[in-house]
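Reviewers of the previous submission asked for a worked example of the structure-prediction workflow described in the proposal, so we include one complete record here. The input consisted solely of the amino acid sequence. No template or homolog information was supplied to the procedure at any stage.
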Amino acid sequence: QAISAQGGPGPSVETGDSASCCGRGVPGHGASDRVPSCAMERAYLREFNALGLQLRPQAAKLVTEFLSVCEDPQSMVENIVEFTKGYLRSRQGAVDPFIDVDIIRNVLECMQARAQGNGLEGAEEATMLRGAEALELGDGVSVYDATRDVLPYEYRRATKDWAPAHEQPGVLAPPDTKAKIYADRYHLLLQRMLMEGRLVAEEEASASGLLPGQRVLTKVESLQGNPGDKITFGLISRSSDEKDENGKRRWVLEDLHKVYPITLLEEATAHLITDGCFVLADGRLEGDRFVVRHLDVPAAVPRLASLQKDLAPRQMFGGSLTDEQLNLLQEVEPANPDGFYVTLAEVHLDSIKVLEKLTDLFNGYEQFGPPTAYVFMGSFSSTGFRPNEQGIKAYRDGFERLKFLMRGLSNHVRVGTRFIFIAGPTDPGAQLLPRMPLPGYLTSDLAKEIPNVIFATNPCRVRHFSRELVFFRHDVLRLLRRHEVLPMRDLSTGAAVSLEHAQTEMVRFILDQAHLVPLPLEQSNILWAYDHTLRLYPLPDAVFVGGVSRPFDTEYQECKFCSVGPFHRDSEFYAYHPVKGVVEPCDVPDRAG
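From that input alone, the workflow returned the following C-alpha cells.
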C-alpha cells in the first residue's frame, strides 16, 4: 500500500489570536490587498533578522501583507518565525537563514490550515500541502547500501549533540583511521553510559557532587596518583609485548591516552566478555598495575532512550529522509500492520532439496499472501565459489534455477515483494566487512529479469516505515566464545553455563557493545573507514544474524534478535512482522509421500 500524502501534524503554532488572522487567507489567495507602510515592513523585518532569518524581497512582501490584516501582528510575527524554523528543520534537517517566497507561502498555508481545521483536520490538510515530499516515500520500505547510504556520525562533547563526520569514508583509509575506530567506539559507549546518570565523570562529580545512587567514573589516564578503589572504563586487550609467567600475552586496559597492565582477581564470570571489547573495571591501582576485582560490560539502553535523552538523529541508521518524512512514516504505520519479512540463511541453490523447499515456500505465500520481502543470506552454494570456468558456471546455474522458480509468482509481483540477497562467507567477493553485493554476471542477471530483486551489502539495513531492521550474515556467534577474557560459568555451581544462557549472553554482549562484530580488528576483517556501518546505536528494532549456529530468538532492551540457522539443514526460517513486533520461527514441512 503506497503512502498517502495525508499524515500527522506539522510543526506546532499557537492558534489563539493567530486564528483571527490565519482564517482570512494567505496573501495572493484572496487576502486583503491593503498595502502596508514601509515603516511597518521594516519593523517586521527586524523581528525576523533578530531571530536569525533573512527574507528575500518577495518573501518579505508576502509576510508584510499577511501581517497587515492581523489583529496582533507583533505576536503573529513571532509565531511565523518559529513556525518557519520548525518547517525548515523538519524538511531539511537544518534552518537555512535565507528564506524565499515559496517557503513563506507554504508556511502561511500550513498555519492557515491549522487554524481553520482547529487541530487535527487542519494538521492533516497542512500535511497534504507538503504531499509532494511524502509521495517520494513509496510503500514505506527502504533498503540501504551500507557503503553509500550509511554515513558516519560523531558526538561533539562541546555542544552535546551528534553530527555527521566531516570526512567521508573511503576504501583506502589513512593510517590513523584504525585508532579512530576505537576512539569513536569509546566515545559512543561512554556517552551512552553517562547519559543514564548512574555513573558520573570524575571531573563533574568534583564540581557538583553526587546524587544518591550515583558513582564516580574515573578515566584510565587519571588513575595515576589517584589512590583508592575506582571504577574505570576502557578497552581490554592482549599486550603486544608483555607476557605472563605462562608465556601468554598479558591483559591490558586502555583509554585514549593511557595503558595499564591489569591483574584479574576473578577466575570466572556469568557474563560474556571478550578480547577487544570495552569494559567497566572495578579495582585499584597498585604500583604500575591495575588490580581488577570485578569486570563487566556497560549495558545497552532501549532505542527510545537514545532518541529522547541522547537526541541521536534517526538518520544515523541510514538514508537521507528528513525528520518530516520519518514522522509521516510513523504516522501512517498503524494503517499498514500486515507487512512481514521472511529471512533465510545458507540457501544452497545447488541442492535439489533446497530448491524443492523454496518451491513450496513460494507457492505457500503466493496462495495465502506474499511477504513484504524475502531476505536470502548466503552462502548460495554448498561447495563454495571456485574462480574458474567450471566454478562460475556452477554458481550461475544455481541462480538460473532460482530464476525459473520465481517467474510464476504473479501475486508477489502485484504487491511489490522484494527479494533481497546478502552474500555469505563462501560466495564470490572479498572477505571484508561491509561486503559488497554479488555482481550481476555471477547471479545470471536475476535482477534484470525478476522484479524487485536487490543484491545488498552485508550488513544490510532496511527501514520499514519507522522500524529499523538489520540483516547480517556472519558466524560471529560461533566466534565470540573463542576470545573470552574469563570463562563463562554458573557462579553458583562452577559448572558450564547452559546453551540458553550462552545464547542470551552472546546477544546481550553484541547489543551492549553496540557493534555487530565486537572482536579484535585482526579477527574481523573490517574496512577501517566503514566500521560505523557495523554499529548498533541507537539500537534497531530487530537484528537478524544468519550463520551456521542453531536458530534461536530473544529480546534484549526492546530489540528483537534472531539467529537464523542454515535453511539447507532443517528448512527453518523466520517470519518477522515489524509493526506488530512479532517474530515467528517457521519451517517448510516435507512433502507428503
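Residues 575 and 584 are 5 Å apart (CA to CA). We consider this example representative of the routine output the project will generate in years two and three.
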